[in-house]
Amino acid sequence: xxxxxxxxxxxxxxxxxxxxxxxxxxxxxxxxxxxxxxxxxxxxxxxxxxxxxxxxxxxxxxxxxxxxxxxxxxxxxxxxxxxxxxxxxxxxxxxxxxxxxxxxxxxxxxxxxxxxxxxxxxxxxxxxxxxxxxxxxxxxxxxxxxxxxxxxxxxxxxxxxxxxxxxxxxxxxxxxxxxxxxxxxxxxxxxxxxxxxxxxxxxxxxxxxxxxxxxxxxxxxxxxxxxxxxxxxxxxxxxxxxxxxxxxxxxxxxxxxxxxxxxxxxxxxxxxxxxxxxxxxxxxxxxxxxxxxxxxxxxxxxxxxxxxxxxxxxxxxxxxxxxxxxxxxx
Length: 330
Fold this sequence. Notes:
By secondary structure, the protein is mainly alpha-helical. The protein has helices at 2-32, 36-62, 66-90, 102-125, 136-166, 177-209, 213-225, 227-238, 242-258, 260-266, 271-274, 278-298, 310-328; strands at residues 130-131, 134-135. It has a single domain, classed as NCX, central ion-binding region (A middle domain of Talin 1).
């Protein structure tokens, strides 16, 4: 098993490097095209940092490891929320961390809740209904995502316009547009090519350790595929753009649910009707932690206890407790 663990670490490092470069290129594309930062962050950045999940989980579905794939998607959402809590704990700023467009983030969080709840509902129903080779559940999730994306775009458009009026003149781009596009495509290709091998290695670790595909997918694979979110979030914090950091996390959680559609396509039968009920527990935990995080976004009387933010600490503890609960239920 040691060989598989070392191989897993090596493949994970490739995904981290490629994911980091891909996110930087996506940011430059947003700066230098009519997309702008708002739409680039909601689509390009979310897709960029979620490419590991897309690659790994579609590969796992081809191998028949559907529990590993679905566990990774729900587990990645939990890990992303853990990143959000740790970010709040370690960011020392005046007043609330999310002071400018918390309501816009809350709208994104509500879309995460709707998408995750829909997925949990179809897991519970165990409905075998399919449209072609894809289950009804993932199709409904994709439709809800597109509708929610439209709402968020128009809601944030006014705020983005007002912010643009107060912005300083743009500085010289860090890279040319052509370089950014080529870099984006190369990094995306690296992730897509690495994903199948990472899925096979994780599946082997699940078999040899006896932990099972559901738990390994929710923890080990989820952490690895969430590494681009960790890196890009920390980069946004260093730039002082806390709102972009939070938007990246919530946008990735929403996009994770839409990945159920291609995963279902590569699996045999209806995906959500065939997976373990352990994923229902994970989905409910994601819903609970997202609700708490949303309340923290909207709460305006936040105070620190010494160096601890109570709301951020609560989010971190809930995620850790959720992972332990999934372990007990594996």
